[in-house]
Design a protein that fits this description.
CATH architecture of one domain: 3-Layer(aba) Sandwich
Strand order of the largest sheet: 3-6-7-11-8
Largest sheet: 5 strands, mixed
Radius of gyration: 25 Å
CATH class of one domain: Alpha Beta
Helix content: 55-70%
Number of strands: 11
Shape: globular
CATH topology of one domain: Collagenase (Catalytic Domain)
Length: 677
């Protein structure tokens, strides 16, 4: 199932089967329509294609190559049209609307929720539009799928295309890089046939440490310039695509009766409107701005202290480097000191142990093999790095399963993510519970010949974040897959992921796995205290960077028409960005969150910060009652993780906390009442 050959056969077969299922529903006489033979039948009608296309989409993200890309792009228009046609099918709409119009008598609360959500899916996606507007909507969906896919391919190809080979005799220009990163660069070069050399790339596991630690300013500038240029040059230029995508999204929203795209996508989310999300962004911006300006002034003074030049301004390739230098000065702390205490296998073991203490679950690794299944005892995977696990309840019952793909490679998109689209937990036709399957992917520091995979603390935090999503996916107990797991409002979905990050800052949790990979000594108390002290180092600058992304996102989708893209963005975020001596290009041309899919996080990047408010507030219960308090953990599982979209997110949150969310906990976490440097 993880090959282009399989997909070429399976996609058309699955599409045809799903279409037959839909045709059977559409043929039911309206008078004979029931909740079971229409609404529940719709829930399962597309399962064959859902599974196959989930495989295709996942492979497109993790092993993108010529053969797979050709198959994916060949079927992308027809599959997009197929799904788009469901909510525009007049016969299906007539039957769903007829059942909805009869009311909810005899339905359970979850059945009522499914009917309401299904009816809204049709209504808000154009089911009652006239024929000419339906036709245009179909075309818009097809064009968006193709253009966002091309945008994503351009970013991937541009990232993979850049490299810098440094011969051993020139190793001195890599001064400052930690030994672990040097070993990765050496292995990277060897894999590409360069003996006795080092290979720099723009992949995060290399680019991030290089920008923090490289001493030569010129080499950091070269790296930054290449990264800054992603999506700005042919054949990978994305500017035209962005304009076209924004125009299509705007037209789609207006066809569906909304003023702008954010109002369309946020109508069923916690923010409700684009204005609501923008107000949240601008309010937090106002609270953070004085601290942000203080930090930049402090950092500029630090640079002048280092250089002796009284007029020196910050350069964009110097920010991470100077931040690291300042952190060492203020806290006598180097983040690389933590890396030896976070070998990947120990981190995974500790993460599994923490989840066991919280929820009583255990993890069991299964053998894997690349390619088609030959041994029934092995699980087929798409790459040799991939692992597979079953997750078991305390009584031994299977909770769910997941794939783990953690290291960077060419053909794999950047970042980290969890996908639950392969299979959501749901109740089968015979009443049996179908367990979910998930994917967790990341681009963590790989092993070298000298050392195992040693993670930064940030990478540990990232891994916990994605497992928070995974727990949401695996623990869902809603009977209907479309309402289960992570199928919730985008500005609520990050709560389960972000709240789990808190455990990597707690001594009791770290003691379960943070041990030196050679000596097995625990994380020293002094180093832990330094880590905590430096947690809010330049925090306002970090927050403002995120706020600049969400402000840009919302303004582009609310106000942008045909202006100069870069001029528009500069004006939008002028008070959100560092006043550099050299003005960076906007990252909009390689911002995958916004433009790599038809919707994705478009008009919703604010969700990360919104959910952080929820996570900081909700974690106060664990802080007050014990981070491993079983009662609190089970309440979180029962009210949040298991409930999916069974009820509105504000209702679920209230059930856990007993009150609406408060911003106070987040501001306290940031330390913004005091000096944030």
């Amino acid at each position: 199932m993880f090959t282009a050959k399989y997909l070429r056969i399976a996609i058309p077969e699955a599409t045809a089967l799903a279409q037959r299922n839909l045709d059977a529903i559409a043929a039911i006489p309206v008078a004979g329509c029931t909740f079971a033979n229409v609404v529940e039948a719709l829930e399962s009608a597309t399962e064959p294609l859902d599974y196959v296309w989930a495989c295709a989409s996942h492979l497109d993200a993790v092993v993108n190559g010529d053969e797979l890309r050709a198959v994916y792009n060949e079927y992308l228009p027809s599959v997009t049209q197929f799904y788009g046609n469901i909510v525009l099918n007049e016969e299906l709409w007539e039957r769903v609307h007829a059942i909805y119009s009869r009311g909810f008598d005899g339905l359970t609360p979850i059945q009522k929720r499914l009917l309401e959500e299904t009816h809204l899916d049709f209504l808000e996606n154009g089911a009652n539009l006239p024929a000419d507007k339906k036709a245009r909507l179909r075309e818009i969906k097809r064009e968006l799928a193709q253009k966002t896919q091309k945008y994503s391919e351009n970013v991937l190809d541009a990232t993979d295309a850049w490299e810098k080979i440094i011969p051993e005799e020139n190793k001195s220009i890599l001064e400052g890089l930690p030994p672990t990163i040097l070993e990765i660069l050496r292995a990277n070069a060897a894999q590409k046939g360069h003996a006795s050399a080092y290979r720099l790339t723009l992949h995060e596991a290399i680019y991030g440490p290089a920008m923090r630690y490289l001493e030569p300013d010129t080499l950091r500038r070269e790296l930054w310039s290449a990264y800054n240029d992603l999506g700005h040059r042919e054949p990978y230029e994305n500017g035209v695509l962005i304009g076209e995508i924004l125009a299509l999204r705007r037209e789609k929203a207006r066809l569906l009766g909304r003023e702008n795209f954010p109002d369309f996508v946020l109508s069923r989310r916690m923010a409700k409107t684009g204005a609501g999300a923008l107000n949240f962004t601008e309010d937090l911006h106002g609270r953070v701005l004085p601290h942000f300006r203080e930090e930049i002034t402090y950092l500029e003074a630090f640079k002048r202290e280092l250089t002796g030049n009284s007029s020196d301004r910050l350069e964009p390739w110097q920010l991470a480097y100077l931040s690291e230098k300042l952190c060492r000065k203020l806290y006598n702390f180097d983040r690389e000191e933590l890396r030896p205490y976070f070998p990947l296998d120990a981190v995974l073991s500790g993460l599994f142990g923490i989840l066991q203490r919280l929820y009583g679950i255990t993890f069991r690794a299964l053998p894997t093999a690349v390619g088609q299944r030959k041994d029934p005892k092995t699980i087929p995977v798409w790459h040799g790095d991939v692992r597979y696990y079953d997750v078991l309840e305390g009584d031994g019952k299977l909770l769910g399963s997941f794939y783990l793909d953690l290291f960077p490679r060419e053909g794999k998109r950047s970042g980290a993510w969890m996908e639950g689209v392969l299979r959501n937990g749901h109740r089968g036709k015979n009443g049996e519970w179908i367990t979910p399957i998930g994917f967790v992917a990341a681009n963590l520091t790989p092993a070298t010949e000298a050392d195992p995979s040693l993670l930064t603390h940030y990478e540990v935090e990232t891994l916990f974040h994605e497992f928070g999503h995974l727990m949401h996916h695996l623990m869902g107990r809603v009977d209907y897959g479309s309402l289960n797991g992570t199928n919730v409002a985008c500005d609520f979905v990050e709560l389960p992921s972000q709240i789990l990050e808190n455990w990597v800052w707690e001594r009791e949790a770290l003691d379960m796995f943070a041990r030196h990979h050679k000596s097995q000594k625990p994380l020293p108390g002094e180093l832990f205290e330094k880590m905590l002290a430096a947690r809010n180092h330049l925090i306002a600058t970090t927050i403002m960077r995120q706020l600049s992304f969400q402000k840009m996102d919302l303004d582009l989708h609310i106000s942008y028409v045909d202006d100069d893209l870069d001029v528009f963005i500069d004006k939008s975020i002028s008070s959100y960005v560092v006043p550099y001596a050299t003005k960076p290009l906007s990252l909009v041309r390689h911002f995958l969150h916004l433009f790599s899919s038809s919707t994705g996080y478009a008009a919703a990047y604010y969700s990360y910060k919104w959910s952080e408010v929820l996570d900081a507030d909700a974690f106060t219960r664990f802080q007050g009652e014990g981070i491993f308090n079983g009662v609190v953990a089970n309440e979180f599982r029962r009210t949040i993780l298991e409930r999916g979209n069974a009820e509105p997110p504000d209702v679920l949150y209230y059930k856990f906390m007993g009150r609406p969310p408060s911003l106070n906990a987040l501001l306290y976490r940031y330390g913004l009442d005091g000096k944030s440097c």
